[in-house]
Write a structure and sequence with these properties.
By secondary structure, the protein is of the alpha/beta class. The chain has 15 helices and 27 strands. The protein starts with a strand and ends with a strand. InterPro entries: 5'-Nucleotdase_C, 5'-Nucleotdase_C_sf, 5'-Nucleotdase_CS, 5_nucleotidase/apyrase, Calcineurin-like_PHP, CpdB_N, Metallo-depent_PP-like.
Amino acid sequence: MVKVKILATSDVHGYVYPTKYLNAADNQPLGLLKAATVIEEIRQNAAPDEVVITIENGDWIQGSPLTTYLAKHSEAPSELLSQLTTTLNYDAGVLGNHEFNYGLDYLRTCERDRDYPLLGANIDGGEAQKIVDAPYTIIERQGVRVAILGLTTSYIPVWETADHIVGLQFDSIVTTARRWVPRLRKQADVVVVAYHGGFEADPTTGKLTERATGENEGYRLLTEVPGIDALITGHQHRQLADIYQGVPTIQPGEKGVAVGMIDLVLDKSKQVIDHDARLLTTANAQPADWLATLADETESHVQRWLDQPIGKLSGDSLSVTDAMVARRHGHPYLEFVNTVEMAAGGTDIAATSLFNDDVRGLSTQPTIRQLLNSYSYPNTLVVEQLSGQDIRDALERCASFWLLNAEGKITVNSAFTTPKLQLYNYDFYSGLDYTFDLHQPIGQRVVRLDYHGAPVQPDQMLSVAVNQYRGNGGGDYPMFSAKKITREVNVDLPELIMTYFEQHPVVLGQQPTNFKIIS
């Protein structure tokens, strides 16, 4: 018998060190350095009859202050990211959706020093653009041939700006897998699918957990594509490890909090006769010093850069102490971000999100660190021409975020928390006066919607500034679309905020009064 042990990380988002960069001494139970220790211990302790294969499952080069620093400073070693994964000896990698956030040139630069293949079977044009190497790879060890098929969520064109994905087409991952898995079954003893995407349905029952848009198609992979021996998923930042539909499946969370592991046992005929799936927490692992030496100097530069002041604040505090209160009543921080969007977009209506609950806002003398911890995404800005009905529909989607429980207390609709936390899909608007009545049915809760003191009419056309994720309809907002974009500001929001501080050395914080919830 031979055992095949498959290890995977996913959605690390450039969190190399065990920190969320809350302050210079911040220490957290996460990061690639801890994951590296777990991976290396398994390799070192592997039995003679064990084959160990490692896969990096995407969303690696964007997401942390470290990755922002690398992307924003031309002198910084952006190739550091692939040096780290190469030194860790990954056998294969897959592109995530956030790999495209800084464009193809930057992606190629980041990946130029790796010595393992990047796989992208459903990225048509990926090899021509030199961002992937092949649809699959086959690794042969101890006489066992293991095929790894790489897939990336096909929903990327919905979020990403067109100039970041020039020459690329993202095909259905199910259609692609149907084409490739039977071929790989003829060439290999074991077929592994590494998919940067998650589950649109409960992987056990098949009950839909989100609208089936093509963003997440893991359940369809399990049930419509026979011949998969192991499935690696990601994108949703969930922690999953189980046997679903007979296939051992993992999703190892985010930021390196866990390493996913699938064990396969093969008989003498090289047929899989047993399997298992589990997650290995990295919380108690010591960071791998042998890997950290590659990044220590850059990390020191990052820490100094993060503590640079960017301006001053007066008036109401932009510090967020209770994220849910901020969503229910509006908040000076949200009003400020909308003010920046309106200034950059030339509108007097804007919408923004508080993302998830780790946003802390800004102090009276904000720093780059505070800004990136509060707005960590490189979203650019778009202006869309929307009808009054479009805006009302968008606000109804926001109003569905809230529910009243049996005691009449406001709670959050589980559709925004389960199976994946999606608090970032609730927006706060500036430039409009609006009221939600939670006693009304979902879809009929916007009971006031005024613009400049007059009710908004269904056919009235208004310009709205939003980030490009929302502007392309991301977050189940189909009333937004690329066809309605009238202006693009191809500068990411954190940079727009810093520019605003340069133009306004002292920013006045103001508690908004344009929004009300009747509960």
